[in-house]
Design brief:
Layout: E1 3-10, E2 14-19, H1 26-33, H2 37-46, H3 48-51, H4 61-84, H5 88-95, E3 96-98, E4 110-115, E5 123-131, E6 134-142, H6 152-170
Parallel strand pairs: 2-6
Antiparallel strand pairs: 1-2, 3-4, 4-5, 5-6
Helix pairs in contact: 2-4, 4-5
Length: 185
């Protein structure tokens, strides 16, 4: 997995990675997949056993697809609303949480996750927080299990977090000023 581009999503605050072999950056790829009925139907069919738990109220595949379509739209709107109201730093700190709950905030290159806006949301957006108000989206997933290690698609997201954190550390990306000289498309 090779990172080939950092794409600006919200100037000075939110960036996304594009990996070799992908035409889209991870932010766009994730939200497009969460808006694709065929993709969602295949995903939930493959992972149907994970839906059949009391935690998800024994959700059907059709209910899961519908819920995801609605929630993904709200999630995307929530991120852009936070970006446009001038309180991006404060609101993003409420949206993105440390990946591991036992780790205190404040470290550079912090692995972070954002939950979809609904209660019991299975939508996750993963990012590296390089400073107080700069996040780099590394990927996202529909997480139906307790641990990311429990499924292949979420294990891949863990790997992406590690690859991007290492890249940012090695290249000194910390504040939004460090991203200024990138050629954004």
């Amino acid at each position: 997995m090779k990172l080939i581009e950092l794409v600006q999503i919200v100037p000075e605050h939110l960036y996304a990675v594009r990996y070799e072999g992908n035409e889209q950056n991870e932010y766009d790829r994730i939200f497009d997949s969460w808006d694709d009925i065929e993709y969602l139907d295949q995903f939930f069919t493959y992972n149907a056993d994970d839906l059949l738990t009391p935690f998800y109220d024994f959700c059907t595949i059709e209910e899961a697809v519908s819920k995801t379509l609605i929630e993904a739209s709200k999630f995307d709107d929530r991120l852009f609303k936070a970006a446009s109201n001038g309180q991006f730093s404060v609101e993003m700190a409420d949206i993105f949480k440390p990946l591991v709950q036992s780790i205190k905030r404040g470290g550079k290159w912090e692995e972070s996750k954002a939950y979809g806006p609904e209660r019991k949301s299975w939508l996750r957006l993963y990012a590296i927080r390089t400073s107080y108000d700069v996040y780099v989206v590394t990927g996202g997933a529909i997480k139906l299990t307790r641990k990311m290690e429990d499924r292949e698609h979420t294990r891949i997201e863990l790997k992406k977090l590690n690859v991007v954190a290492q890249f940012l550390r090695n290249n000194g990306f910390e504040t939004h000023d460090d991203f200024v000289y990138l050629d954004f498309k």
